[in-house]
Amino acid sequence: MNIRRWVQAGDYYLFYYVNQRLQCSFLDRVMPFFTILGSAAFALFFSLATAILGREQARAAGWQAFFALTGSHLMVRLFKNWVGRCRPYLALPGARYLARPWQDYSFPSGHTAASFSLAIIFALNFPALTLPLVALAGLTGISRMYVGMHYPTDVLGGATMGALFAYIVHSWPW
Questions:
Q1: Range of lowest pLDDT (4-13, 97-106, 118-127, 151-160)
Q2: Which domain, by its residues, includes 78?
Q3: E strand or H helix that includes residue 133
Q4: Which CATH number do you get for residue 28?
Q5: Mean pLDDT value across residues 69-73
C-alpha cells in the first residue's frame, strides 16, 4: 500500500469514527457550538474587540490575532482552490452533516485555522491560558469532523496553517 492510500484509509477511518461512532444527542447539540468558535465572524469579532477594547497587552494580542487570521484565511482560500478536495459529506457514503452544507472545497479547514490562529496568539501572549485555548481550538477541529464538513487531514492542515501564521505574526518585530 502506498503512502497516499495509507493516509486516505486513515483519514476515512478517523472521519467515520468521529462523525458516526461518537454520535449522540448531547454531542449533536454541543459540537455545532464549537464549530462556531472557528467561524470567521466569531474570530474576527473577537480579535477586533480585543484589539479595540483590551488593555495594553490584550490590545497587542488582538491586533496580532487579526493579522494572523487574515494571513491564514488568505492561505486557506488559496489552498482550497488549489487542492480542490470534495467535502466528506458529499464524497463518503453514509457521512452525516449537522451544519449548513457548503459547496466550496474541504482542504484545509478554515474554521480550524482560525481557531488555532486565535489560540496560539493568545497562548503566546498569555501563557497561563495555553491549555484551555489549545483544547478549545482542538475541539473546534474535532467538531468540523463531527458535523461532517472536514476530514482529519483537513483539520490537521488548518491547525498547522493557523499555528504557523500565529507564530510568524507573534515573532514579527513590531
A1: 97-106
A2: 3-171
A3: helix 130-146
A4: 1.10.606.20
A5: 95
